[in-house]
Amino acid sequence: MAAWRERLAGVRGVLLDISGVLYDSGEGGGKPIAGSVEAVARLKRSGLKVRFCTNESQKSRRRLVGELRRLGFDIHEGEVTAPPPAACQVLKERGLRPHLLVHDEVRSEFDQIDTSNPNCVVIADAGESFSYQNMNKAFQVLMGLDKPVLISLGKGRYYKMTSGLMLDVGGYMKALEYACGVEAEVVGKPSPEFFKSALQEMGLEACQQHLRR
Predict the structure, then answer these.
(1) Contact assessment for residue 101 and residue 129, using Cβ atoms and an 8 Å cutoff
(2) Is the Cα torsion angle 25, 113, 96, 88 positive or negative in sign?
(3) Which string of DSSP letters, residue by residue, matches the chain?
(4) Which residues contact 205 (CB under 8 A, 6 or more apart)?
(5) How much is the pTM?
(6) What is the reported pLDDT for 4?
(7) Which of 88, 95, 158, 192 is most buried (most C-beta within 10 Å)?
(8) CA distances from 5 to 42, 46, 188, 205 (A)
(9) How many CB atoms neighbour CB 25 within 10 A?
(10) What is the 3-state secondary structure (H, E, C) of 103-125?
(11) Mean of all residue pLDDT scores within the chain
(12) Contacts of 78 (CB under 8 A, 6+ apart)
């Protein structure tokens, strides 16, 4: 206990990753990693500010939090920083109208965004929607723009589920970058702006938090 307190001396908040740190997703809601439920509870009892950062873009925050709560985690939707809401903020600020290549589960996150006459492409972990037809449509949108903008919700290579390793959005992002000659803007980890937004929600500076991923 003393060593734990010494390690967190001066720290006022903790940012926690979710997938692969707290749990492995999968059929039936996935399974928690040993000791993770107790660790979150202990952090919250300590009085530290706790926020959860995730690149999850196949599930809405509501569904993700529901699954985690059923596994025993003390977590609420307002404590989660995720790419879709952050991307919506970027789109609104810059007046961008996206062509969406995202999972059906998170389309509702973009309900308040104008998607007519797209002037950018937003790509996320679309799962089975990563068909040739859908990738080619995103390619065509980008190639038809004078100043193509590609926004990727994360750039992971793969992630772990209970059934094994799964290909993530990064490979598809790289394919569009190569084909279109553009560089994607990443909303999500490891973008510094993504972590800054989480810290702002906590009311903390970077020197006052600890990241666990």
Answers:
(1) yes
(2) negative
(3) -HHHHHHTTT--EEEEE-BTTTEEB-GGG-EEPTTHHHHHHHHHHTT-EEEEE----SS-HHHHHHHHHHTT----GGGEE-HHHHHHHHHHHHT--EEEE--GGGGGGGTTS--SS-SEEEE---GGG--HHHHHHHHHHHHT-SS--EEES---SEEEETTEEEE-HHHHHHHHHHHHT--PEE-STT-HHHHHHHHHHHT--GGGEEEE-
(4) 199
(5) 0.81
(6) 57
(7) 88
(8) 12, 9, 30, 20
(9) 22
(10) CHHHHHHHCCCCCCCCCEEEECC
(11) 90
(12) none
What is the residue whose two structure tokens read 């084909």? 179
CA-to-CA distance for 175 and 182, rounded, in angstroms? 10
Which has the closest alpha carbon to 212: 73, 79, 54, 85? 54
> How buried is residue 103: exposed, middle or buried, by Cβ count under 10 Å (0-12/13-18/19+)?
buried
Render pLDDT for 43-87 as a digit per residue (tens, 0 to 9).
999 888 999 999 888 888 899 999 999 999 999 999 999 999 999
**Distance separating alpha carbons of residues 140 and 56, to the nearest angstrom:** 26
In the numeric block, which tokens belong to residue 188? 């999500």
Strand 164-167, strand 158-161: pairing: antiparallel
Give residue 31's identity as a one-letter amino acid code. K
**Two tokens, residue 154:** 């994360």
Strand 23-24 and strand 31-32: the pairing is: antiparallel
